[in-house]
Amino acid sequence: xxxxxxxxxxxxxxxxxxxxxxxxxxxxxxxxxxxxxxxxxxxxxxxxxxxxxxxxxxxxxxxxxxxxxxxxxxxxxxxxxxxxxxxxxxxxxxxxxxxxxxxxxxxxxxxxxxxxxxx
Length: 119
What we know:
Distance between the termini: 20 Å
């Protein structure tokens, strides 16, 4: 088991070369804020269930509600948050509205996180 003394440097030394190299690759503050918002949205188990549910096929609100066991109004609210975060998109067909993941990036994020937890 790691103890705190094992994870803290014993000597104070700042490697300016490494710091400057890493700084060049850090995103700008606006990008970091956007990332933070995405992770906030992903931090809810109902929203994750929705994303996992629509990761393989598009579904309507009623289907998602029946699948997850949450009211239609609650699903609609969660879908609105997911849509505002650009994690889901929708398609209208007559009176029906079908939801799917916005793009393959979202599918990758969710699937990779799931794999990480399952390992």
